[in-house]
Amino acid sequence: MDVEIGIQNVTRPVSFATDKSADEVSAAISEAVGQGTVVDLTDVKGRRIVIPGKAIGYAIVGSETSHPVGFGALG
């Protein structure tokens, strides 16, 4: 799942991929913004991303589809 979170007053967004579903990511972000807590997610490399809910400007939660690279069976 690709996630992009825009931080208020910061030019570059925080972008990462996570194994969580779109519903789990959306729920974590919604809870953090609503309650004024932090979003605490882990990316596919095991790094923790912790962002204060008050600082979130926007969030884009991408699709869960993978994009294979290479040649499939031809013919």
TrEMBL record:
This is DUF3107 domain-containing protein. It holds the Pfam family DUF3107. The lineage of its organism: Bacteria, Bacillati, Actinomycetota, Actinomycetes, Bifidobacteriales. InterPro entries: DUF3107 (IPR021456).
